[in-house]
Amino acid sequence: MSFNPSHIKSLLLCVLEHRSTHSEVTEFINLCHKMAVAYLRMKMANGKFNPENLGLTIDDFAFDSIAELFQHSDAGFPELTNYFGNFIPLESASADEIQNALRCLIFSNVNHRVYRSYREHDSSLGRIIRNIKEYLTEHSSLKIVDKSGEKYICRRECKTGFSPVTPELLSIQFWGRLPEHTSLNNMLSVISEILSEQPERQQLIPLVEVALLIRSVYSTKHIENSSYEQSLFTQDELQMFINESFQRTNQFLQSSYVQKGKLSCEESTIYGNVVADVLKHEFLHFEKDGHSYFSIMKSHNPTLTQEQYNLHHRVIIEYVAKQAKNDLRERLKRELSFL
């Protein structure tokens, strides 16, 4: 889509100098809206964003993106005035310079809106973004920077090249290096290595692109007994999910064992507590090894012997614990599911 730079400059000067007519303001708003739509179409073509996932048309999302620019007051349009007043001398600037400055402003607002939408409406991606930001506060080689309204991950000693690292290039190299068992921190380290090996490119990549890439790992890799899913949640969140699974385990024990006379109420309580401890060791503290079911059950029943455990408890405990772990993994995966 082409725009007339001279006409853009003329309209902008009229709007900022309070000598525009209502139709000229409307025309300028529509022009900014067309820029926003064009930018969103580019994002959609690259598979980076789809406003329909939020229940909005591309036109509606574009208007939402630029709405703050046209909040009116007695002083006119403060957002536009502040931006151009600090960014570029309008009278002496060329029409092309003004068009480029306006384009940067529009794109920045679109990027802010896209980012907010991910945080507000896509809980799984918002959680990944949150955790990435937390990890990078103390990461030795990566940091987050703001560029044209969009957040980027870059090397702490970021080199400026002629072209940026593309998401496609990052994805190809990332998947080729990803270990079978890894953590969020390790995945970020792989990304840092990839960026460091691009001396001819700008060593930065959009934060949202990295989050989408990392989410694709969780959605495509079916890995059990790993910290993939857990690494995206806070301790409080994991404890909440464990509590939910504990409640479902107790309900299962009651309906399948106590009511059928296979376990006493006291035994059912002990079994439930054992399963809760198993979930905490594996999902909350990442301590799968070193805690046998027998040792955990003995902590709740000090007189229990290995022989008694093997004869009377092992089969049920291992079955119920397996069910509970599968239940919890499915719960975590639902939390990380796509829109």
Task: Give a description of the structure.
Helices cover 64% and strands 6% of the residues. The chain has three domains: 5-121, no CATH class; 125-220, no CATH class; 233-335. It has 13 helices and five strands. The protein has helices spanning 5-16, 22-45, 58-66, 78-87, 95-121, 123-136, 167-177, 184-196, 207-220, 235-258, 265-284, 293-300, 306-335, and strands spanning 142-147, 150-155, 163-164, 201-202, 204-206. Mean pLDDT is 81; it is low at 222-226. The protein is elongated. Strands 1-2-5 form a three-stranded antiparallel β-sheet. By secondary structure, it is mainly α.
Write a brief structural summary.
This protein has 339 residues and is mainly alpha-helical.
Low-confidence stretches: 222-226
H/E element sequence: HHHHHHEEEHHEEHHHHH
Shape: elongated
The whole-angstrom Rg is 28 Å
Question: How large a portion of the residues is in β-strands, by DSSP E?
Answer: 5-15%
Distance from N terminus to C terminus (CA atoms, Å) equals 31 Å
Instruction: Give helix % range.
Output: 55-70%
Count of DSSP-assigned helices: 13
Average pLDDT, rounded to a whole number, is 81
Question: Order of strands across the widest beta sheet?
Answer: 1-2-5
Total strands: the figure is 5
In total, how many domains does the architecture comprise? 3
Structural class: mainly alpha
Major sheet size, sense and barrel closure: 3 strands, antiparallel
